[in-house]
Amino acid sequence: MALSFSQTSFTRPNHVLGSTGSVFSTPTSLRFCGLRREAFGFSPSNQLALNSDRIQFPSRKSFQVSASASSNGNGAPPKSFDYDLIIIGAGVGGHGAALHAVEKGLKTAIIEGDVVGGTCVNRGCVPSKALLAVSGRMRELQNEHHMKSFGLQVSAAGYDRQGVADHANNLATKIRNNLTNSMKALGVDILTGFGSVLGPQKVKYGKDNIITAKDIIIATGSVPFVPKGIEVDGKTVITSDHALKLESVPEWIAIVGSGYIGLEFSDVYTALGSEVTFIEALDQLMPGFDPEISKLAQRVLINPRKIDYHTGVFATKITPAKDGKPVLIELIDAKTKEPKDTLEVDAALIATGRAPFTNGLGLENVNVVTQRGFIPVDERMRVIDGNGTLVPNLYCIGDANGKLMLAHAASAQGISVVEQVTGRDHVLNHLSIPAACFTHPEISMVGLTEPQAKEKGEKEGFKVSVVKTSFKANTKALAENEGEGIAKMIYRPDNGEILGVHIFGLHAADLIHEASNAIALGTRIQDIKLAVHAHPTLSEVLDELFKAAKVESHATTRTGDAKIKLNTNQEDQRGGDDGKQPSVSEDLKDISTKPSSFFENIYVGVLSLLSRIFV
Fold it and tell me: What are the Pyridine nucleotide-disulphide oxidoreductase dimerisation domain coordinates in residue numbering (predicted)?
């Protein structure tokens, strides 16, 4: 359970709770994770209803949202609705929005023209992690020196290609079924067919099915982007969609693009015995990563492996293999556009990013014009039309809006939209959303890179500091013989604000969340450095990172601001000198709501409140 407190502190009472005489005001922003607020009688418009010594729980009702009267020139919106919320697209973003909508009491439908789970589950993050799990084990078993350091002797490791492919496919099927069953169990209507916007608050799906809703979310995702001049045959010239089926393991494969997708597939293919050639348009590999992390990652993930690369070049033409001839790749200089080289390889993987899937959505019916295929939205994911005004009751989340093309970002945006349509304003901080590349070792990041942070500091007039720690100093990493890696934090020394954290090393993708949550909650370094981490664990890499940061002495620490009194001595445990049990209001009235006292507030607030409710 978790408590989220509003920015105003608890005030004195207006309702009596139980027979103890203790009183408190109802905090309208109190949330119980996993439990509906309505179950505890908390809502923005209703106080606790009391009958003698018992709490009367209010009946669950759908949140009433008023429909817009704007027609946008396509007819008046309907006066009554089939659903509170319709979601077009049942990927990870749509699924997250649907589940949160049901939790909020909205009658919800989700439309899917392909299969539930979208790209992530069927052709992206999920099956790729299955392949990467195989590559990680193969890489470890093939490293004779590594195994001998543990005193282990392992014979030559091999693999069954079809068995590996089946593992990826079975995982995707399992997760897809889980998502489908979770929505059905909660009462989400899953409608089959291609969905499009017919007009204000009106959607068409399938051939001629028309339904209405108070609010509509577009969550149609993206597809692999294939540059002009590249001919994809699905066999020798492939995208990530094809590669995840692992129909073959070529001896030599060129990977066009060295971002997340390209790096992960290079890890898979080299572990399974392929030679890899990267083709990158920019002057350095791994663009988008922090430069220092990229440099180290290249030394570990690329240089020792069967990988070579061409940077600063475009692949202007790629011809699939046929009639016994290899795949031909024509390269030109990215700046001068002069011919540079021609490669002959067994296969080519196009990993040049993804393009939004927004064609055929009926956006013209609400006067929306895409920008490079992306649907324009504001910070609250509200769709903006061709005149620069908001389209009432229409939202777009995930890859289709281009803000941050990550599955968990889409889900977070969907949840944010549901919060808004049910009466609670919410703006998602995209700088707090982490990202990860699941190579061996992994790379993860959140917030700004060092160059980005320094540019921001110059514009806004503050200093930027950087601190780093090594996995070589971590006991758990050394026990695993995985000491290669660093963690790096960019921060403001004047106030302790965390601007960015980047990790390269064992389980980096799991470690990043402490930093991302700190950014999301506004926790400063001077507070989080006091947190305790279990020993020996990899989490101590971040612990050392926070402790190594030098924050100026005048920067305030907020942990000490909490006026809460923890019941740790015998007098408090028995209720004080007079033997009376402290009231709820006395426990809660002085809780500071500042972010840095968040965990202390949770501990005492939950214990005090729940003991009064259920006893």
Answer: 433-544
- CATH code assigned at 117: 3.50.50.60
With b meaning 16 or more CB within 10 Å and e meaning fewer, what string describes 162-191? eebbebbbebbbebbeebbeebeeeebbeb
Considering 487, 516, 548, which residue would you say is the last residue of a domain? 548
Q: How far apart are CA 448 and CA 413, in angstroms?
A: 20
Residue 433 confidence (pLDDT): 98
Our count of domains for the chain comes to 3
**Are 436 and 364 part of one and the same domain?**
no
- Both 375 and 247 in a single domain? no
Domain that residue 501 falls in: 431-548
Q: Is 89 exposed, middle or buried (0-12, 13-18, 19+ CB in 10 A)?
A: buried
pLDDT of 165 strictly over 60: yes
Name the pLDDT band for 100 (thresholds 50, 70, 90): very high
User: Could you tell me the pTM of the whole model?
Assistant: 0.79
Q: Which of 146, 167, 535, 554 is catalytic?
A: 535
Please give the angle made by the CA atoms of 372, 375 and 376, to the nearest 5 degrees: 100
Q: Would you call 507 a catalytic residue per the annotation?
A: no
Count of alpha carbons within 13 angstroms of residue 80, beta-carbon side: 1
| 576 torsion bin: left (phi>0), alpha (psi -120 to 50), beta (else) | left
Reference 257, options 230, 242, 277; nearest CA is 277
Each residue's pLDDT tens digit, 297-309? 999 999 999 999 9
**Domain end (from 329, 352, 375):** 352
Q: Are strands 390-396 and 382-384 parallel, antiparallel or unpaired?
A: antiparallel
Q: Are 445 and 502 in contact (CB under 8 A)?
A: yes
CA 205 distance to own-chain centroid:
29
Quick one: 132 and 192 in the same domain? yes
